[in-house]
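Subject: design request, 470 residues
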């Protein structure tokens, strides 16, 4: 057992196994309050946190209390650390809502809850298990570089409460959704994970313009992603496992949405935020302020009229307000790149089969699996094609697509109400597998629970395609 005794500006930790005392000097470089969510400082409604010398410090955002160690050691601790044990040092932190996440010097993620309670500094419950039902898996590691940033996101029923889908229908967040989001090494995709999903980084989606935009940094709150690009542009998007269409326990539709039941596809798309009147750095922050999509505040470090500070607005506002701090910038100002990049899309050709007898030439053009978009050609007709990767139960590589591995998807196209003589209510819903080499789909069977409204299901259509250079 470890006993903590506060004494003046020092903290002495005494172990029952030894009479030797370890003195931890209180850091002298802790701020009065935290303005930005970075890898070393963050905040929620109740608390500021800061990482110094591998330990986490905490301070209330109200009044003038002192900074204190989080818990007894300033590191993840407790009986639930059964995968990696107590870390020697923490190198990065993130906080949103009730959730705090810490990254150890050995590249392991630790997750904690109860960060909204009055006594959170003493009651954070840490775990290092990750993956599968009940989060009983082997734990989550970085796998690839975190140099472009990562962020925890909490969509909690006591905070966010609900979200509005792309057709304006409001849905409850249920018991809540908490994810980790991070940028790929080239900044052109966002990878994410929930600790009840397999412990990997295979779930991902493109940055704006089918991955054309190179993101420098990311901040996330309440399932709303905020990125800054190498060109100095700012983008936001509401997106998580439930909103995307990936959760096979929920029902989605391109054409129909009802409150609390059927959720709209496609998911909300990227939105370019208005430019600021000044210069900006790559230090960005988003934080939740209440229920629903619009209750998010955006904050960007920058300079206006030679004064340092930050630009801020609510997510739906059309202009930014500058607040001067006259403090040194955390990051250098962005010099916008002039490079142009083309997105990576795929084309496929093959056949569309109706009732296992009529075979019609088919083609899928400009398909981006991680932007979920393409154009489906069946005979002389064309339709917008939307697809998402669906739930899996075992881990896979974060670069499974580039490796040519197949994965389960569901796809939808908005078509005529009566399609080749079959009444499918204007929506063709297909399920199957896809890889960069081939796609094989069939109409969603009546026996498959959820995913789509029952009047879209059947056994009439198949789509078989192979990668084409055309």
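Subject: RE: design request

Done. Sequence follows.
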């Amino acid at each position: 057992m470890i006993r903590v005794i506060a004494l003046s500006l020092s903290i002495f930790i005494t172990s029952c196994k030894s009479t030797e005392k370890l003195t931890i000097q209180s850091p002298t470089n802790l701020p009065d309050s935290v303005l930005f969510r970075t890898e070393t400082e963050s905040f929620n409604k109740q608390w500021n946190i800061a990482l110094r010398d591998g330990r986490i410090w905490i301070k209330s955002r109200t009044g003038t209390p002192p900074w204190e160690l989080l818990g007894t050691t300033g590191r993840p601790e407790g009986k639930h650390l059964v995968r990696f044990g107590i870390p020697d040092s923490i190198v990065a932190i993130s906080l949103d809502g009730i959730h705090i996440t810490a990254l150890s010097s050995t590249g392991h993620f630790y997750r904690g809850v109860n960060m909204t309670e009055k006594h959170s500094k003493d009651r954070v419950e840490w775990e290092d298990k990750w993956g599968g039902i009940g989060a009983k898996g082997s734990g989550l590691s970085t796998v690839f570089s975190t140099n472009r940033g990562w962020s925890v996101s909490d969509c909690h029923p006591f905070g966010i409460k609900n979200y509005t889908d792309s057709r304006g229908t409001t849905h409850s967040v249920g018991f809540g959704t908490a994810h980790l989001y991070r940028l790929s090494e080239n900044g052109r995709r966002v990878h994410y994970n929930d600790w009840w999903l397999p412990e990997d980084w295979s779930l991902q989606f493109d940055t704006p313009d089918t991955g054309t935009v190179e993101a420098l940094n990311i901040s996330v709150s309440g399932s709303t992603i905020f990125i800054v690009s190498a060109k100095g542009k700012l983008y936001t998007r509401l997106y998580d496992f439930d909103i995307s269409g990936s959760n096979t326990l929920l029902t989605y539709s391109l054409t129909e949405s009802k409150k609390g039941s059927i959720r709209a596809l496609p998911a909300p798309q990227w939105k370019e935020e208005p430019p600021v009147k000044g210069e900006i750095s790559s230090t960005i922050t988003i934080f939740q302020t209440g229920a629903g999509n619009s209750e998010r505040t955006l904050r960007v470090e920058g300079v206006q009229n030679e004064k340092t500070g930050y630009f801020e607005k609510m997510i739906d506002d059309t202009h930014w307000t500058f607040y001067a701090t006259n403090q040194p910038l955390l990051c250098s100002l962005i010099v916008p790149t002039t490079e142009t990049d083309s997105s990576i899309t795929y084309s496929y050709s093959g056949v569309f089969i109706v009732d296992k007898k009529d075979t019609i030439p088919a083609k899928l053009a400009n398909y981006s699996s991680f932007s979920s978009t393409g154009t489906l050609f069946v005979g002389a007709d064309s339709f917008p094609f939307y697809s998402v990767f669906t739930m899996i139960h075992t881990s896979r590589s974060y670069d499974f697509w580039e490796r040519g591995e197949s994965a389960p998807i569901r796809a939808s196209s908005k078509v005529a109400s009566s399609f080749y003589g079959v009444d499918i209510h204007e929506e063709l819903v297909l399920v199957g597998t896809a890889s960069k080499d081939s796609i094989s789909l069939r109409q969603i069977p009546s026996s498959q629970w959820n995913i789509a409204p029952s009047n879209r299901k059947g056994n009439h259509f198949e789509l078989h395609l192979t990668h084409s250079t055309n």
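Residues 346-468 form one domain.
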